[in-house]
User: Fold these one by one.
Assistant:
Number 1:
Amino acid sequence: MESTHARKRLRLAWDVAPSSREVFLVLCDVRADRFEAAVPTARGASPPWREDDREGHYVFDLGENLTPRYKILSKIGEGTFGRVLECWDREVREYVAIKVVRSLRKYRHAAMIEIDVLNNLSKNDSEGSRCVQIRRWFDYRNHICIVCEKLGPSLYDFLRKNKYSPFPVELVREFGRQLLEAVAYMHDLRLIHTDLKPENILLVSSEYIKVPTCKRYSQDEIQFRCLPKSSAIKLIDFGSTAFENHDHNSIVSTRHYRAPEIILGLGWHYPCDLWSVGCILVELCTGEALFQTHENLEHLAMMERVLGPLPEHMIRGAK
């Protein structure tokens, strides 16, 4: 799917302190066993039924319930598919991320495919170390809701937090190793992600440290940047994942990470994921997307500037 300019993509800040109201709501649930008897109906009650918005998104207020089991704490993100909400799971007493899919038929259908992919990934990854783990799913008011483990910020969030200052090479090397292992794991299962990008790679932990940089605003002011305490990452967003033996859409991948064979209309397969990995690693090392364009011919010209002329066989077969 096309994205806007790499440095104008809006994302929710991951390190903004919660409001006092949100803190109160969390404390209420964490200590629910102490006062549940005082508010037995309100605590687990569902909110009043509402119409979806014009685009089919679920309409909610913070602090409401998403079924009696989940309390909505914040909105983590939003995309074409729907919205991702941070929720408190009352039953197992943990934070979870719930993808609430738009109530339109095509998105509901895509969500069921994603659930199949997530279950397949989870079943074959006993340690859950490569891809986000699905907890369960349910259908609520005509919205498919996919419950997953709560992870930390994306690598894109971290870059933006650091004003697009690159990661240390040693850290990029570790990210790259894990990313390649995760992609190889998916390919072994005959799955192609097709939408690899820094936004879809999440740190497992939100913890970070501040370290001084060489840059100074003045003689007395030291500039700092953030680095994650842990390098552990996981892949997310399998809504565009394709099975090897299924029909493949002609256009896949977000523009900046799209392989040349896709642009040229040559069809695509496993290598398109590897092209995206290469673009991602360059961006993590430099702080800037390698191919910042939205036009096919310019995109191909930029590729040739970096890699040399396109192979003759690709040009001959191009549409």
Number 2:
Amino acid sequence: MLDESGLDGMFRTARTPRRWTTRPVEPHLLRQLYDLVCLGPTSGNCSPARFIFLTGSDAREKLRPALSAGNVNPVMGAPLIVIVAHDPLFFEQLPYLSPQEDLRPWFAADVGLSEETAFRNGTLQGAYMIMAARALGLDVLPISGFDQSAVEDAFMAESGWRANFLLCLGYGDLGSLPPRAPRLAFEQACVVVD
């Protein structure tokens, strides 16, 4: 179990930045991030998430036209941008990822099931990346305000992957953040069924 300091860093005192310091994200952290993310559970170990790390100015400029106006500055200022995507044909990897079960035919024969599974589990893996980034001392800004088709055309035309959301990673300038926004109480958001 994480100690109080660990829980603070992951949840209680972690904040979502809107501005970034100039400190870069060290290149070795990309592999460390993925090495943690890939260990999180997915159904049948399907692991459909795919991650595109944008580190250079050319990649950022390719992304810029796809961003909604309010997201341009926070995204373009981030030291590292990750496109969280999923592979609709994730099931082609199932003989390797889940060799004890013959799961590939289920998904290959049912487009609806495979799309739902890829989106749900890819989103879950994107959330693992948020937690992994925080565990490694990075701040995270998730972004959903962008043109999905434009991002896919610019970065995934050959792979056929589907964009889900963006993660901006780095070291946030947290000094001017307003107080944390309210959250729903347990009684408002949870039901316990016996």
Number 3:
Amino acid sequence: MNMALIYPMFQAAQTRQVLKKMDPNPPFMNTYKKLFNTQPSCSCDLVSEEECELPLIDLSLLHTENASRCKREIAAASLNWGFFQVVNHGISTELLDRARSEQVSLFRQPFENKCKDFSADAYRWGAPTATSLHQLSWSEAYHISLSQSHDHPFKHNTITRKTIEELAASLSSLAHLLARVLAEGLGGDAAYFEDNCNRETCYLRLNRYPPCPVPGGLFGLIPHTDSDFLTILCQDQVGGLQLMKDGRWITVKPNPSALVVNIGDLFQAWSNGVYKSVEHRVISNPNQERFSVAYFMCPSYDSIIQSQAETAIYRRFSFREFRQQVQEDVKLIGYKVGLSRFLV
């Protein structure tokens, strides 16, 4: 064969190998080839009927004569929506921007580096147990335990570690503030959250949703409810978050100045169903990547979740028992059942 033809072909092959090694995206198509071969499209209902702006609450009012009204708005949003947005929340734009910059740099590393440098507990992507495209999440994430007994996944990157820890501390303070307000709205014991939810039990998740080339799209994150008390979400301006409202999916319009808060399963049980843990999901984008950071307010595994209502909807259970039941359901039937397992 003519060497003048062979050399360009060799160069092209080398270039493809270099680009592959530099690619930040997980190998979704190769890893889940069997699913794509048997189900060429997800055929999921990915389109919502409308876009909405979540209830918007100005937390600076908590320090004014309008504090009572602000607290009522938080409780009403938790009851009627299970989701709301907060502004003037006390977390600086500078810190949020710095954290986003560090997050983007982390995720844009070559995929090979991300897999090599972090344990399976810290870096995750896709859905290893998926048996259909409906169970596949087109996303990757760093799960960061805030417990001092765990090795920090960024222990060798001082700037990133300090930024993440600063963000976690700020989100923790905000989560405790909101939990106190919600507990007081029920006439409950706000000290419960100080006693049971701390640095040792809560965690952060850094999310990236790569562009998805699959025709018709896929879930960036499959429909679910959160298995915690409450979640605080810092997201970018690439839309994709949807929630279930009045029996239909609606798209949440991103707000550049707000953080999103949602009620988790444990608060729904603790409030005897007053506050709602609402099903939500993320839809993949064919052209743009999406970033978000989620703070999960969780108790210790031995913490008891119990409503103080005279007639309780849910039986008394520990967080450990709840988590184990969720894991068993996912393993056996492919999805989380959640609170309905704990009805009286």
Number 4:
Amino acid sequence: MINVLIADDQGMIRAGLRSLLEQDSEICVVGEAADGLDAVTCARRMSPDVVLMDIRMPELDGIEATRRLLSERRETRVLMLTTFDLDEYVFDALRAGASGFLLKDAPAEDLVDAVHVLARGDALLAPAVTRRVIELFATTPVPTAPRELALLSPRELEVLRLLATGRSNAEIAENLFVSDATVKTHVSSVLSKLGIRDRVQAVIYAYEAGLVRPG
């Protein structure tokens, strides 16, 4: 069972999301929060697997709420809910640790699928969001590579570079002439050595470290 917490300052939105999610027998909505502070408190008490987090909320916005929540519960996945696919706060939310983005007007099946994706430990980014992140890095000076990169083997560095270009495990396996299982092992090792949560955070890390550049 996937335990989900819904955080949104609009009661009708929360009710709608709950109704959609509860149609799936594998999802249980354990609670609702009307603002960021309430979301952090509820997550602390309810230990959800996935939190649907609105970006703009009173008391504490969704970005800071995500940062605080994940500082206490690294295993929880946060799916940011936004009205616009190019929301101005996309990058800040990803830096705070969000594992994915979803538009509020997305089809019901997309919402349910997204919860399952995050619950598996994977990440979810719409192409438009990915483009925005890359565009931001295109205007950022190349930084000094962090020391953690030295912990990675040459093959793990290759895997991280390919992850950062948006390739799936199957595509990485084909590129490196190895099995999907081997790629999965490498990805897990990269995340563990760098102390990052998922593929989205790996992409951000690779760009910030200067390991890859847009284009």
